[in-house]
User: Which sequence fits this backbone?
């Protein structure tokens, strides 16, 4: 699924996800899961705009994928600022004339727990939530005009709790709620809204987490024993491919769903471990 059609297995039916030429915004698109989504979207022929704050990764990914003949543009923006969200939408519309898909992936676990001051909690909400609303707000009309869709990226900690991350959990829980609210709002307008929830995906963030322990490989192995399916973490490619499918016309009657892709970690009984 979600691989370049030229790489299809001989004799297999190749599923066209009908993303050719679709204009797709992916926030937080230069690292980890976001970069994986950018790569999978571009491989399906989408015209991808990856949005991230300043850093060398965006230009490098853009150059790499453009050299492969794919359509990818890096757009630098500080999404915690509402005017920057408006500018992203305006820039994409000026360049492409439309927006078909918004993947709200940007965010970070800022580890703000109940000892944090309320001002810090509010700042954490702003950093992880406001841009999700702002981008969809500013893209409202073009999403309706082109019968587009929104894919929000949640977090399993909003389902399970983690104990030390109140602001991040609150933001991700709100994103799940907004998914259903917007799906209801857009239902008669032909716009779909869904939320994809990752569990433990082996990204650089997890590499840094494991590096805090005396034996990082053993710490990873211990963590993976809590994941029922395969006793392993989800790969970036597995999660990204599911995002691409949900955003595609092959999922044309799917809306208002919060879909957890975590190897069963969040919902299966812990006795399985």
Assistant:
């Amino acid at each position: 699924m979600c691989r370049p059609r030229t790489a299809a297995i001989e004799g297999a039916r190749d599923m066209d996800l009908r993303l050719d030429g679709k204009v797709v915004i992916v926030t937080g698109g230069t690292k980890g899961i976001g970069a994986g989504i950018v790569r999978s979207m571009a491989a399906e022929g989408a015209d991808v705009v990856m949005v991230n704050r300043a850093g060398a990764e965006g230009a490098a990914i853009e150059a790499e994928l453009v050299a492969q003949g794919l359509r990818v543009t890096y757009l630098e923006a500080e999404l915690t600022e509402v005017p920057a969200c408006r500018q992203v939408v305006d820039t994409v519309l000026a360049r492409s004339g439309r927006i078909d898909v918004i993947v709200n992936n940007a965010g970070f676990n800022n580890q703000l727990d109940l000892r944090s001051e309320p001002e810090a909690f509010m700042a954490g909400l702003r950093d992880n939530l406001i841009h999700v609303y702002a981008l969809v707000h500013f893209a409202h009309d073009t999403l309706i005009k082109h019968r587009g869709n929104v894919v929000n990226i949640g977090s399993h900690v909003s389902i399970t709790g983690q104990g030390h991350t109140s602001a991040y959990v609150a933001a991700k829980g709100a994103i799940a709620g907004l998914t259903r609210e917007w799906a209801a709002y857009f239902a008669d307008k032909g716009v779909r809204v869904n939320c994809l929830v990752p569990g433990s995906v082996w990204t650089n963030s997890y590499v840094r987490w494991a590096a805090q322990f005396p034996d990082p490989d053993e710490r990873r192995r211990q963590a993976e024993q809590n994941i029922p399916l395969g006793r392993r973490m989800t790969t970036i490619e597995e999660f990204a491919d599911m995002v691409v499918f949900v955003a595609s016309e092959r999922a044309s009657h799917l809306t208002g769903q919060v879909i957890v892709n975590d190897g069963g970690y969040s919902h299966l009984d812990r006795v399985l471990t």
The chain has two domains: 19-199+239-258, 202-233. The mean pLDDT is 89. The first helix runs from residue 32 to 43. Residues 19-199+239-258 form a domain with the Rossmann fold fold (CATH 3.40.50.720).
